[in-house]
Amino acid sequence: MSKEPKALSKREQIEAMLPWYESGQLDDADAKAVADYLADHPGVADQLALIEEERGETTLLNQARGTPSARALDRLMDSIEAHEAANPSLASTKKAVWGWASRLVGAPVPASLQWVAAAAAILIVAQGVSLGVLLTSGSPFSSGSDKPAGQSYETASGPSRAVVREQGPGVVKGTFALVQFTDTATVSEINAILTEKGFTVVDGPKPRGFYKVRISDQALDNKARDTILDELMTRQELVSLALPAE
Amino acid sequence: MSTADQDKDLIARIAAKEHEAMQALFARHNVRVFRFLMGRMRNEAHAEELTNEVFLEVWKHAGRYEGRSAVSTWVLAIAHNMAMSQLRKRKEDELEDGAAEQVADDSDDPETSAQKRSKAEVMREVIDRLSDEHREVIDLVYYHEKSVREVSEIVGIPEATVKTRMHYARKSLGEMMKEAGIDRGWP
Q1: What secondary structure, in 3-state letters, does B122-163 show?
Q2: Nearest Cα to A194, choosing from A205, A208, A181?
Q3: Which member of A16, A46, A141, B175 has the greatest number of CB atoms within 10 A?
Q4: Is some CB atom of chain B closer than 8 A to the CB atom of A91?
Q5: Does residue A240 sit in helix, strand or coil?
Q6: pLDDT < 50 positions in chain A
Q7: DSSP calls for A140-191
Q8: What is the Cα–Cα distance from A213 to A193, expressed in whole angstroms?
Q9: Cα–Cα distance measured from residue B17 to residue B58, given in angstroms and rounded to the nearest whole number
Q10: Where exactly are the structural domains of chain A?
């Protein structure tokens, strides 16, 4: 069997590059060196036919090696589940954030935008979370006491800093809508329209990408509510659909 | 989006722990990885087990992929390293168990064999009988269509060594063909 000496002759150096010359994978300098050599030594070019033959038989040999069993993917996914179960915190958090982001801006989210989308999701939900966190000044909760039922809260979202009264877990007064944002709406655009209108996301994403948005801290009548929704629907570049919600 | 870009996008999504992206990447590359490992491990069950481990490594470390090489090159480099590790372990186990099992070669002598089969069949048999290193470089260049730089990344050797190794793999192939009664005119 052939040994592998350290140095090749000029001819051998050219021969060594022929497989990649034949497949067009050499850089310009090497391709020119080979082409020039072949022009002066046409006999060496006979090897190109041998290389083509070797390539064909190698391909057939590889194809004859078969394919993994039909269970291979299931086994891989089982292995991944087991790995995640052993490392729950990082995996589940990342997965939750990505899934959340994807639903927010419309799946699938391009990889390059995933962190942006995740940031959007966090921003929007943070608005909702703020409902239950920020108290009016002087409240017992703001000084560190436990939160009593029926406590008065103030949102930090929107210019009006509207007061919302919490009447129990998950119950917030006001007028609400289900809003579906367009696939092309950006993070900053969504945040801007929520801030501009003084709206607050209080829940979501729900099926089909809807978010429950508080459009007023007052219980508006249907006419006033519909006026707001109609106005929202004029922002077609950002809002796909806006429906009344309880 | 090119196939290479699609692969890179899948890796980014796998780094974000999207199972669907992992399934898509597996569908695109599992056969080639399996065949590459079959060439090294020479055993279907071992190759499949290692294929599983290669993609599990991809799942765990997708965040480390820097995008400087094609995803297929990165995945094959993982496969190469895992195969090398397994083969080293296998050799150690064999040494611990005493002399390596000698496999009796009860086939016809090469020349007789060549008379029975076509030149193409003999060539495939010869490629399969090349040394591990030579068979690997032949597989990577001819079947996986890897460039000099990519083979260098996968195998972890300098580019000049890749060219030299491929040259001597081809010379060995030609010499073994000649021993089998088929003179191709080179070397």
Answers
A1: HHHHHHHHCCHHHHHHHHHHHHCCCCHHHHHHHHCCCHHHHH
A2: A181
A3: A16
A4: yes
A5: strand
A6: 1-2, 89, 105-109, 128-170
A7: TGGGTPPPPTT-EEE--SSTT--EEEEEETTEE-SEEEEEEE-TT--HHHHH
A8: 12
A9: 11
A10: 10-64, 92-245
Predicted confidence at residue B122, as pLDDT, reads 95
Residue A5, helix vs strand vs coil: coil
Query: CA A238, CA A181: separation in Å to the nearest integer?
Result: 6
Is the pLDDT at B152 greater than 50? The verdict is yes
Q: Distance (Å) from the C-alpha of residue B173 to the closest C-alpha of chain A?
A: 9
Question: Which residue ranges form the domains of chain B, and what is each CATH number?
Answer: 3-96 (1.10.1740.10), 110-179 (1.10.10.10)
b/e code B17-48 from CB counts within 10 Å (16+ = b):
bbeebbbbbbebbbbbbbbbbbbbbeeeebbb
| Alpha helical stretches, state H, A87-135 | 88-105, 114-133
- Residue B38: list chain A partners with CB under 8 A: 65-66
Read off the amino acid at residue B24: A
**Is A80–B19 a contact, with Cβ atoms under 8 angstroms apart?**
yes
Test mutation, A3, A11, A54, chain B, max B CBs within 10 A: A54
Work out the minimum CA distance from A27 to partner chain B, whole angstroms.
10
Residues 6+ apart with CB under 8 A from A223: none
pLDDT digits (tens, 9 = 90+) for A43-101: 999 999 999 999 999 999 999 999 999 999 999 999 999 998 888 745 555 555 555 55
CA B134 to chain CA centroid, Å, is 10
Decide if A189 contacts A170 (C-beta within 8 A).
no
Task: Return the H-helix or E-strand segment holding A14.
Answer: helix A10-22
Q: What is the pLDDT of residue B23?
A: 95
Window B:39-98, CB contacts with A under 8 Å: 39, 44, 47-48, 51-52, 55-56, 59-60
DSSP letter, residue A215: E
Distance of CA B55 to the CA centre of its chain: 16
Regarding predicted confidence, which is higher, B78 or A188?
A: B78
CA distance A228 to A31: 68
Quote the tokens at residue B100.
């390596």
Q: Which residue has the higher pLDDT, A208 or B31?
A: B31
What gap in Å lies between CA A98 and CA A3, rounded to an integer?
53
Both tokens of A180, joined, read: 């579906």
Cα–Cα dist A232/A190, whole Å = 12
